[in-house]
Amino acid sequence: GMNETLRVNGTARISTDPELLESMAVQGKLPRSAIVVTVEECYFHCAKALIRSDLWNPAKHIERSAFPSYGTIMTDIRGGTPEDAAATDRRLQNGYRIELY
Questions:
Q1: Could you give the CA distance from residue 69 to residue 82 in angstroms, rounded to a whole number?
Q2: Cβ partners under 8 Å of residue 38, min gap 6
Q3: What is the per-residue pLDDT for 1?
Q4: CA-CA-CA-CA torsion sign (48, 52, 55, 57)
Q5: Cα–Cα distance for residue pair 1/63, rounded to 1 Å
Q6: Residue closest to 16 by CA, chosen among 37, 29, 31, 26
Q7: Helices (H) and strands (E) in the chain — how many of each?
Q8: Which of 75, 79, 89, 91 is the most exposed, having the fewest neighbouring CB atoms within 10 Å of its CB?
Q9: Taking 70 as the threshold, does the pLDDT of residue 100 lie above it?
Q10: Which residues contact 82 (CB under 8 A, 6 or more apart)?
Q11: Cβ(42)–Cβ(7) under 8 Å?
Q12: Could you read off the pLDDT of 16-60 as tens digits, one per residue?
């Protein structure tokens, strides 16, 4: 809900360094990789652009149901049936629920 934004310029790299990943463990599970950002510049931007965009205005938000589901998109790309799309969506939601950590 904040309108001011933080801008970060720099470089990023993907790391699989075990020591770094160990420091990021959650509930005993380590990430497979990490993004390491080297910040070269960091500063705040005023809120003008976000205020103009109405980004935080709920009346301007698009209902999630107006978009296709992940399963539908992936089935369109790979080919398949609406049942395949529904099965993909169920697997995804189940993964969020029981395999997040």
A1: 11
A2: 10, 11, 12
A3: 67
A4: positive
A5: 18
A6: 31
A7: 4, 2
A8: 79
A9: yes
A10: 72, 75
A11: yes
A12: 999 999 999 998 999 999 999 999 999 998 889 888 988 888 999
